[in-house]
Design a protein that fits this description.
It is built from four helices and five strands. With about 140 residues, it is an alpha+beta fold. The chain has one domain: Histidine kinase-like ATPase, C-terminal domain (Heat Shock Protein 90). Strands 1-2-3-5-4 form a five-stranded antiparallel beta sheet. Helix 1 packs antiparallel against helix 2 and helix 2 runs antiparallel to helix 4. The protein binds adenosine-5'-diphosphate and magnesium ion.
């Protein structure tokens, strides 16, 4: 698998960064020819995982790209969310659905996982969280 195009890469600290990234994300979806209802669902995933960075880690970075898997002749949207925050605790509870969120609905990660064709999450306590989300588009 190789990333062949990068649409946007940036830091996320505040709501202004998030608004700008949201515009870039929508532009990428349009360029990739992604239409509703998938477009709206992907925007929800993007906003949930981006807000998690700001809310739970304080700051971090995101990357929006296109990925090609030549062996399977597939092209996908790839999203990376990276931060050096506290790490995600209770992953088992979050993904089994028994997690009770203090502020949100507690469905951001679970929803993203369900929407993904490939989802990888590496989180280390008191260190970092790295999430990669891939959705095949053709
Ligand atoms: N980037 C992150 N860094 C640290 N903790 C996180 C991060 N993202 C999510 N979490 C933790 O995982 C929990 C579940 O996240 P999520 O499913 O988005 O639900 P919510 O944000 O509504 O609480 C959060 O409540 C938070 O404790
Ligand atoms: Mg959340």
């Amino acid at each position: 698998m190789a990333e062949d195009k990068m649409y946007y890469q940036g830091e996320l600290i505040n709501k202004k960064d998030l608004s700008y990234a949201q515009i870039k994300f929508i532009q990428a979806l349009v360029e990739l020819g992604i239409k509703d209802p998938l477009k709206t669902n992907l925007l929800t995933v993007f906003m949930e995982l981006s807000r998690n960075i700001i809310r739970h880690a304080g700051h971090g970075s995101i990357r929006i790209g296109r990925i090609i898997e030549r062996s399977l002749r597939r092209t996908g949207l790839v999203l990376d969310f990276n931060d050096e925050g506290p790490g995600i605790m209770h992953l088992d509870k979050i993904f089994s659905g028994s997690y009770k969120s203090k502020q949100g609905l507690g469905l951001g990660l679970k929803g993203a996982f369900r929407m993904a064709d490939r989802f990888s999450l590496a989180s280390i306590e008191d260190d970092s969280t790295h999430i990669r989300f891939i959705k095949w588009i053709k």
